[in-house]
Amino acid sequence: MAVVLQTLVDSDFEHVVKITTTGTNSAATVVDASSLAGHDSGPKLSIVACQWSVSSQTDILFDATSNVVALSLNGNGAFNTSQSLPTIKNNAGSGVTGDILLTNSSASVGFIILKLKKTDGYDNLD
User: What is the C-alpha separation between 118 and 46, in angstroms, rounded?
Assistant: First the structure.
């Protein structure tokens, strides 16, 4: 695993993480939903926004028995940083953990900033 994580925000309602990648990764955990502030049980996160610069295709996954691709990133870009698009909800089926994973098939160098909304399984959402 060749990722370095930096938590930028972990508040009652959101989590923002900066991910630096320097190699090949297969389902590397980039957000452990059960370790975030206010975790209760059955955590789920939605992707609110994302900004990236990566040197090869990188997939952001919702962790489950069969992982679900939430975003496929390549080159430079941004999702929902200046628009008002809906969030990307965790639609993983059985075995969903709430964790966010990262996979890239060839050595990737770059960064990703993910802004996530805590939607289920946190006691501070009330």
Answer: 7
